[in-house]
């Protein structure tokens, strides 16, 4: 009793624990949905949607129509493999024939005036293709023949024949790989299509990162322009006060107003750039699949650019790329496919030497006709002994009458002797695939070199522009202090403000370029999927 209570208590606690976990998971999912829900901005016609880079990549993988279309290609190739494997499924053939013939009698011994024959026959055949390139078939043939011919001893006549046929090529088309050629080629094509799809994933991830960081740059650049405009407006207000007090000539006001107008034009250009990248990001994510009016949605990136230096050598990056790049994997698979095609073409040059073997058993029954004095020439029928159809079938199945034949057939195609065009074509295709693979590896070496150099260069640029921005801030602060005591002019202050804005923009651009070069390096190495934990499984395997 105590054991039963303990067991019941254990099941109750387990149920409560599972229920708590489900509730927690549902709560976390609701929190995530609430977090990604668009929030009303100051503009009543806009909704702000905060997204991280991973959120954008996830949405693009889920909603992008181009990727969805490309995903069907490996599935189609997988169905082609299934279709090729159907070659080795047994084929069942049913054949039924009914025939009535009427012919003029050419002899009074044959029939009185018209020879009439009724025949029904049907065949059931099971055919199996063998992996060695041969074929095996089992067939059962049955017929019923009824005729008005004279002097027959059995009429109607029932016949059955059970036959086994075996055919095996010994040279051309011989072997497990040759016999399964369609399946092997279909699998190669499927693997190539899957690697091409993985390449599409790499490109899509990189494109999302490229648009995302450019959107970050355009938004931050807009903030810099807005801050620069604010400084120019503050200086303009200060100049108005000093002009009214008579301590500053009126010409200074024109200089400040011109600078304000110029910086407003810069803001208009920066706002247009933000909208452009927002539209690109909405399109690549197919945001229209989740929201009706995407024009009202304003995307707010939440990730900050990477600032830490990433150390990677050329040798390490090249070794990774040679192992991970999907397009290289596809080229290697295509090379294997070409090598197999060449071996098949070489096999097709051989004579077609086939071993054929047949084993069959006939059976016969029917109504036996009894003639006077056991002489059919009298034409006088004195009786019949009925026969059954099953008797003929039984004799055939029991192999009462055993027959066999064996043959060797040799066929020598003329084209394999003179032209050998198919073999020459396969050989050239293999050489072409080898050259393409070597060319890809050479281009990859250059691409890796440029990508690694871009990472190092852009990081150094970011550090240099950071120092330049800090110096520009100090110069502006010093010039503003000098202006307060009358040792500088508005022109110089405005110039230093513009220099600071440009320095901030260049630092931000270098930092974004550094992050884009990191993303490009991952793409070149084929590591974008792994770094973003993206894995797409295609097919049932």
Keywords for this structure?
541 residues; 10 strands; disordered N terminus
Describe the model.
- This protein is an alpha+beta fold and 541 residues long.
- It contains 13 helices and ten strands.
- Helix 5 (181-245) runs antiparallel to helix 6 and helix 5 (181-245) packs antiparallel against helix 8 (326-348).
- The relative contact order is 0.12.
What's the layout of helices and strands?
Elements (H helix, E strand, L loop, with lengths): L1 H35 L2 E2 L6 E5 L1 H11 L1 H21 L5 E14 L9 E16 L5 E13 L6 E16 L6 H4 L1 H65 L5 H35 L11 E5 L12 H11 L1 H23 L3 E20 L9 E5 L3 H9 L5 E9 L2 H5 L2 H64 L5 H36 L2 H4 L10
Parallel strand pairs: 2-7
Antiparallel strand pairs: 1-2, 3-4, 4-5, 5-6, 6-8, 8-9, 8-10
| Percent range of helical residues | 55-70%
- Label the structural class: alpha+beta
Q: Give a quick account of the main beta sheet: strands, pairing sense, barrel closure.
A: 7 strands, antiparallel
What percent of residues are in strands?
15-25%
């Amino acid at each position: 009793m105590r054991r039963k209570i303990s067991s019941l208590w254990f099941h109750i606690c387990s149920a409560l624990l599972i229920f708590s976990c489900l509730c927690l998971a549902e709560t976390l999912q609701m929190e995530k949905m609430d977090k990604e829900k668009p929030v009303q901005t100051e503009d009543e016609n806009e909704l702000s949607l905060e997204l991280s880079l991973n959120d954008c990549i996830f949405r693009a993988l889920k909603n992008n129509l181009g990727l969805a279309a490309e995903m069907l290609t490996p599935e189609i190739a997988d169905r082609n493999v299934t279709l090729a494997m159907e070659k080795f499924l047994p084929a069942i053939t049913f054949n039924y024939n009914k025939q009535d013939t009427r012919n003029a009698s050419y002899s009074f011994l044959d029939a009185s005036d018209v020879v009439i024959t009724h025949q029904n026959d049907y065949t059931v055949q099971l055919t199996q293709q063998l992996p060695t390139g041969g074929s095996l078939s089992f067939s059962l043939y049955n017929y019923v023949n009824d005729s008005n011919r004279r002097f027959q001893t059995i009429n109607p006549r029932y016949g059955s024949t059970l036959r086994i046929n075996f055919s095996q090529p010994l040279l051309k088309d011989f072997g497990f790989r040759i016999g399964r050629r369609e399946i092997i080629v279909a699998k190669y094509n499927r693997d190539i299509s899957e690697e091409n799809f993985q390449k599409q994933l790499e490109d899509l991830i990189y494109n999302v990162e490229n648009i995302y960081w450019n959107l970050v740059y355009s938004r931050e650049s807009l903030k810099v322009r807005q801050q620069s405009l604010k400084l120019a407006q503050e200086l303009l207000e200060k100049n108005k006060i000093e002009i009214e007090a008579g301590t500053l000539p009126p010409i200074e006001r024109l200089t400040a107003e011109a600078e304000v107008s110029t910086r407003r034009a810069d803001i208009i250009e920066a706002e247009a750039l933000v909208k452009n990248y927002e539209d690109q990001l909405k399109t690549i994510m197919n945001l229209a699949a989740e929201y009706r009016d995407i024009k009202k949605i304003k995307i707010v990136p939440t990730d900050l650019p990477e600032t830490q230096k990433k150390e990677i050598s050329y040798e390490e990056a090249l070794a990774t790329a040679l192992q991970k790049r999907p397009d290289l994997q596809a080229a290697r698979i295509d090379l294997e496919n070409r090598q197999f095609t060449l071996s098949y073409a070489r096999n097709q040059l051989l004579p077609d030497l086939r071993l054929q073997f047949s084993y069959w058993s006939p059976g016969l029954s029917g109504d036996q006709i009894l003639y006077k004095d056991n002489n059919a020439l009298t034409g006088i029928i004195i009786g019949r002994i009925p026969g059954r159809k099953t008797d003929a079938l039984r004799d055939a199945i029991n192999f009462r009458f055993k027959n066999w034949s064996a043959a060797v057939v040799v066929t020598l195609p003329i084209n394999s002797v003179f032209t050998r065009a198919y073999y020459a074509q396969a050989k050239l295709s293999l050489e072409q695939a080898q050259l393409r693979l070597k060319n890809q590896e050479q281009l990859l070496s250059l691409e890796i070199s440029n990508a690694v150099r871009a990472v190092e260069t852009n990081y150094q640029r970011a550090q240099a522009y950071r120092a330049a921005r800090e110096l520009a801030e100090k110069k502006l602060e010093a010039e503003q202090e000098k202006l307060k005591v009358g040792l500088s002019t508005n022109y110089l202050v405005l110039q230093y403000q513009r220099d600071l804005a440009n320095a901030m923009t260049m630092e931000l651009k270098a930092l974004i370029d550094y992050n884009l070069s990191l993303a490009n390096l991952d793409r070149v190495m084929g590591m974008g999927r792994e770094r973003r934990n993206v894995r797409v499984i295609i097919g049932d395997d």
